[in-house]
Design a protein that fits this description.
Bound molecules: cytidine-5'-monophosphate
Oligomer: single chain
CATH class of the largest domain: Alpha Beta
Number of strands: 12
Distance between the termini: 28 Å
Function: Catalyzes the phosphorylation of the position 2 hydroxy group of 4-diphosphocytidyl-2C-methyl-D-erythritol.
Shape: globular
Pfam family, one: GHMP_kinases_C
Protein name: 4-diphosphocytidyl-2-C-methyl-D-erythritol kinase
Number of helices: 10
InterPro entries: GHMP_kinase_C_dom, GHMP_kinase_C_sf, GHMP_kinase_N_dom, IspE, Ribosomal_Su5_D2-typ_SF, Ribsml_uS5_D2-typ_fold_subgr
Largest sheet: 8 strands, mixed
GO molecular function: 4-(cytidine 5'-diphospho)-2-C-methyl-D-erythritol kinase activity; ATP binding
Order of helices and strands: EEEHEHHHEEEHHHEHHEEHEE
């Protein structure tokens, strides 16, 4: 007897945003990238990407930040889909719908989450059954931050951020994110850190024992004071108002404040869900940012959202 397997008509995948709990940036390498030592945490702001067959490549944007993402074929999700097509020997165009809830160009890897979601969605749509290692390899070709949202949780990143290893961690953390009106370009922030450190002897990057101990214990207060980001001074230099925003959040009771990745989103760690609500109200009243979002971390990485059952 032969088994006929039917491929799905549409596949939807959810992928999370990230915050770097610590981001240490080494010297600029010969290939233009910087060696990193970082700890990523996936947080509960998600994009959803749906892929379906189509006569031509197109991106349809929906959701909170829909108006801010490229809708043409230069969207990273199209590049992700075409990479999977190439790997699988598939010659088919897709419509890619992106339901955007992760701040755009905010340092939370929203574009990377879309790329990761698209890789997994295309794999399922075309029935390729690529394993996690193969997907991670494709993800690293698309960008340094793309492998992380495939896996989620808490992970240490090295290399240019794409080499991931587990970290011992417990607990759940309550975050408040202050989102700016306009994004920052990651290459510009890295160029600024090079400029600021032009005369400095930059050591090889290492994550601190203090941060790892705080995560191991699930100790929010210790984690708050161990948050660190080498890109923060570069982000402050390009956007001086971010310093004031960080200070305001700490004055309002946050356990710690940090520019998320290359910014300009600022992440505040709080002691509880209630403390996160209180901080949101205070930040909102101070009118220092465009948007305020609350989230918990860690959460799982990219996963398929089951299709609604047909009756
Ligand atoms: O890898 P991705 O395309 O996301 O990187 C965008 C840019 O950010 C790179 O072109 C580079 O300028 C900078 N970058 C870096 N070092 C890293 C990651 C990114 O200099 N480890």
């Amino acid at each position: 007897m032969t088994t006929v397997s039917t491929l799905p008509e549409v596949v939807t995948v959810r992928a999370p945003a990230k915050v770097n709990l610590e981001l240490r940036v080494g010297p600029r390498r010969a290939d233009g990238y910087h060696g990193l030592a970082t700890v990523f945490q996936a947080v509960s702001l998600h994009d959803e990407v749906s892929v379906s067959r189509s006569d031509e490549w197109q991106v349809v944007a929906a959701g909170h930040y829909a108006d801010l993402i490229p809708s043409g074929t230069d969207n990273i999700a199209v590049r992700a889909a075409q990479l999977v097509a190439e790997r699988g020997g598939i010659d088919e165009a897709l419509t890619i719908r992106i339901d955007k809830d992760i701040p755009v160009a905010g340092g939370m890897a929203g574009g990377s989450a879309d790329a990761a979601a698209t890789l997994l969605a295309c794999d399922q749509l075309w029935g390729l059954a690529l394993d996690r290692d193969e997907l991670s390899e494709l993800a690293a070709e698309l960008g340094s931050d793309v492998p992380f949202p495939l896996l989620g949780g808490n992970l240490m990143g090295s290399g240019r951020g794409e080499q991931l290893t587990p970290v011992l961690a417990r607990g759940s953390f309550n975050w408040v994110f202050a989102v700016s009106g306009t994004g920052l370009s990651t290459p510009e922030v890295y160029a600024e850190i090079d400029r600021l450190r032009a005369d400095a002897d930059v050591p090889e990057p290492r994550v601190s024992a203090r941060l790892m101990a705080a995560l191991r214990r699930g100790d929010a207060e210790a984690l708050g004071s161990a948050l660190a980001n080498d890109l923060q001074d570069a982000a402050f230099s390009l956007r001086p108002e971010l310093r004031e925003l960080c200070e305001a959040g700490v004055d309002f009771g946050a356990l710690g404040a940090i520019v998320s990745g290359s910014g300009p989103t600022v992440a505040f760690l709080t002691a509880s869900h209630e403390a996160a609500l209180d901080l949101s109200v205070s930040l909102s009243a101070a009118a220092l940012c465009r948007d305020i979002r609350r989230a918990k971390g860690p959460v799982h990485g990219a996963h398929v959202v089951p299709a609604p059952r047909t009756p």
